[in-house]
Amino acid sequence: MNDQAYEIAGKVARKFAVCGDVVSYERYGSGHINDTFKLVTSGNGAPREYILQRINSNVFKNPAEVMDNIFGVTEFLRRKIISAGGDPDRETMTIVKTTDGALFHVDDNGGYWRCYIFVTDSLSFNKVERPEEFYESAVAFGNFQALLAEYPADTLHETIKDFHNTPDRFKKFLDAVEQDVCGRAASVKAEIDFVKAREEFCYTFEKAREEGKLPLRVTHNDTKLNNILFDKKTNKPICIIDLDTIMPGYSVNDYGDSIRFGASTGDEDERDLSKVNFSLELFELYTKGFAEGAKGRLTDFEFDMMPYGAKMMTLECGMRFLTDYLQGDTYFKIHREGHNLDRCRTQFKLVSDMEKNWDKMREIVDKYRNV
Ligand code: ADP
Ligand code: GN1
Ligand code: MG
Fold this sequence. Notes:
binds magnesium ion, Aminoglycoside 3'-phosphotransferase, Chain: A, domain 2, alpha+beta, Phosphorylase Kinase, domain 1, binds adenosine-5'-diphosphate, binds 2-acetamido-2-deoxy-1-O-phosphono-alpha-D-glucopyranose, five-stranded antiparallel β-sheet, 2 domains
């Protein structure tokens, strides 16, 4: 396979102020957006492991603004971590600047690259392996939001316009159905009807926002389990990563996106839907952890909206996968034919399960209101 990013990564690596010489690099992780490499260098000093990434500029139209947000947020977190006696090189992302002191490097083809210190002895999960870890990740994401509560939101760039504006996502989905550029719409009529039947629901948060009930906060916006690094030895969360989409948003969407990904018994792209079930036990663990981590900062209305956040993010994500499938798979990286459709189907299975368990979800949330 022609892997253009891989071919130039070695040359690009030398543009960054890494310690020593580049020994090796390989593709790393299972993100759907950026081209990610783990880089190893040799030399006397530490660190010797890095993450080198080509930012997806089809998704992020202004990569310089993305880096500006990340620099601001990580510097802010750094100061907090240091004053709490923590290790900033492990507990937040550390940008490695270019040899010219810039936050990113632009290659000869116009590709934007960045480099971070690799958080050593860490790993991320694509599925919950031990429930305790999911609970801990909830505390970490809740706490992340609490930490950023004091961050000046007006200094953040909107890196993807209308990222979690679900009515806007719905409109874009309808356009994709209408245009049907790949001639795939007829074969996914059931999935299209599934979304259309839930149009009204999509407006819930935008309406609440207009009525002044739902506050805008600084949120991560991509809180899936594999965007948090765990310590290999202790299995405790160390560092929240993938800060590309930090923007003002709704707390319940951060909460909901984690539920969508983690409170499922199957992988996001599992083909056998009998293996994909919404787990109320995991839902409860995450709810407890998120409420604890947010340390009393969430309003009563935000608690009311938690089940909606779970369903909203799951429906929205399924709709986004379906839109991409209809448009010819131009947004999310795919690794097989029909990959986005498989992903869409797991999300809709989870939405159906949530609808069946709606009352129980509300009861669980009530138990953890400002614990
Ligand atoms: P994407 O936007 O494509 O999801 P991410 O920034 O989430 O890209 O990175 C992809 C994967 O690379 C992560 O899921 C994680 O496994 C790994 N990763 C990213 N940054 C680091 C880091 N600083 N240290 C260790 N692993 C990392
Ligand atoms: C993408 O970048 P990654 O793989 O962590 C996407 C999220 C989706 C997710 C679905 C910038 O996340 O919004 O929820 O895939 N990120 C972007 O797995 O679109
Ligand atoms: Mg990621």
